[in-house]
Amino acid sequence: MSRLFYRTDFTLLILITIEEILMSFFISDAVASAGAPAQGNSMTSMLIMLVVFGLIFYFMILRPQQKRAKEHKKLMDSIGKGDEVLTSGGFIGRVTKVAETGYVVIALNDTTEVMIKRDFVAAVLPKGTMKAL
Predict the structure, then answer these.
(1) How far out from the chain centre does Cα 38 lie?
(2) Which DSSP category does 128 fall into?
(3) What is d(CA 22, CA 42) in angstroms, rounded to the nearest whole number?
(4) pTM for the full model?
(5) What are phi and psi of 96, to 5 degrees?
(6) Range scoring the smallest mean pLDDT among 4-8, 10-14, 120-124
(7) Which positions, given as ranges, span the membrane (predicted)?
(8) Rounded distance, CA 14 to CA 80, Å?
(9) Residue 91's closest CA among 116, 128, 126?
């Protein structure tokens, strides 16, 4: 029985709190429309905050992504015949031919070759990796 009263009291407490929040919101609107002088300081602080968030976004998201893209492009340009590579699909093979059109032929074993787009090479492995497997 006491749980029922507890829930009722708790619900009443929530309703009173919501009512107080709404009243304070409308009262602050009424005070603001009474003709308070314009504040130029809030616009400046808003602009400063926007610039700070822009810098955080640049240094936390854009710059590292650009750095990874530059490293990946450098990796793609360095792929040559005889390199052992790991593809994004999980294949490990030796590059047998590099086409100018952006494709690479990879020998997975002595009898199997696959042609993939150069962008799907995830990493260039050290020499002898295929023999160690």
Answers:
(1) 39
(2) T
(3) 24
(4) 0.55
(5) -105, -25
(6) 4-8
(7) 12-36, 42-62
(8) 68
(9) 116
What span, in angstroms and rounded, lies between the C-alpha atoms of 86 and 4? 64
Q: How far is CA 51 from CA 54, 56, 65, 66, 102, in A?
A: 5, 9, 20, 20, 40
113 membership: H or E segment, kind and range: strand 113-117
Q: How far apart are CA 22 and CA 67, in angstroms?
A: 48
With CA atoms as reference, report the closest residue to 83 among 120, 129, 116. 129
Q: How far is CA 54 from CA 10, 19, 47, 85, 87, in A?
A: 43, 37, 11, 38, 35
pLDDT tens for residues 18-77? 666 666 666 655 555 555 555 557 888 889 999 999 999 999 999 999 999 999 889 888
DSSP letter assigned to residue 126: P
- Amino acid type, 94: R
80-132: CATH topology: SH3 type barrels. (2.30.30)
CB environment 95-104: b (16+ within 10 A), e (fewer): beeeeeeeeb
Mean pLDDT, the chain, rounded, equals 80
